[in-house]
Amino acid sequence: MKASVRKRLENVVPHPRYGKWIRTSDSKVDVDAINRTRRFERGEVFMETAIPADVTRQKPSVFQRVVYFDVLKICRTCGRDFIFYAEEQRFWYEELMFYLWSSAVDCCECRQDAQQLRKRNERFTQFSNAMASELLDDDSLVQFVEDAIFFWQERILIKRQKLNRIKNLSHRRLPDHPVTLKIEQFTRVLDQHCNAKNA
Ligand SMILES: [Zn+2]
């Protein structure tokens, strides 16, 4: 391990469930499987932590995450190093059924613990269903918009169409509410970012 990586590992934000160091695994996973999965994660990857995935439990996708491995990343919110653990990934993609391209961008302190994340995800699914059948009350709609922004930032919500639908609903139902201004501002910044990239 490079000294610079070791130094970063020594200062990671501790994870309440998985600790504060990479977790070496005894699983036999082949290098090819690891290489095929690397595309999903930017950051320092630790081959020795790899565990096999059960792709039948994941959301269907052209590319599957065939293994999980600990990844050293930098928290977008607080700037500290954190580990997105292999076990945590299994939870995300096999239990919570998150999109395979989604990935942790915040450390666990800046995020929430897994339990809260699970609850929030369940609530988001309920709101999505209620939106489809037009049964969402105003308080729920406010929460739904907040959740949509949060899940977009976490790269859990990745369908722009859905984000736009939520924004439009908020605009129609709660035109003067701060949350509407918030999501409008949020999508405006996304558009600018997109246009800048394509220019
Ligand atoms: Zn953080």
What would you say this structure looks like, in words?
- By secondary structure, this protein is mostly helical.
- It is built from seven helices and five strands, in the order H-H-E-E-E-E-E-H-H-H-H-H.
- The chain has a three-stranded antiparallel β-sheet. A two-stranded antiparallel ribbon has the order 2-3.
- The structure holds zinc ion.
- Residues 13, 75, 77-78, 80, 106-107, 109-110 line the site of zinc ion.
Shape: elongated
Strand order of the largest sheet: 1-4-5
Spell out which ligands are present: zinc ion
Total number of beta strands: 5
Q: Bin the strand percentage.
A: 5-15%
How would a crystallographer describe the biggest sheet? Answer: 3 strands, antiparallel
- Strand-pairing-aware structural class: mainly alpha
Count of separate structural domains: 2
Rg result: 18 Å
| Span between termini | 40 Å
- Order of secondary-structure elements: HHEEEEEHHHHH
Low-confidence stretches: none
Number of helices: 7
Mean pLDDT: 91
Helix-residue proportion:
40-55%
What oligomeric state do these chains adopt? single chain
What does this entry show, briefly?
With 199 residues, this protein is mostly helical. It contains 7 helices and 5 strands. The chain has helices at 3-10, 31-38, 86-95, 114-132, 138-153, 160-173, 178-198; strands spanning 44-45, 51-52, 67-68, 71-74, 81-84.
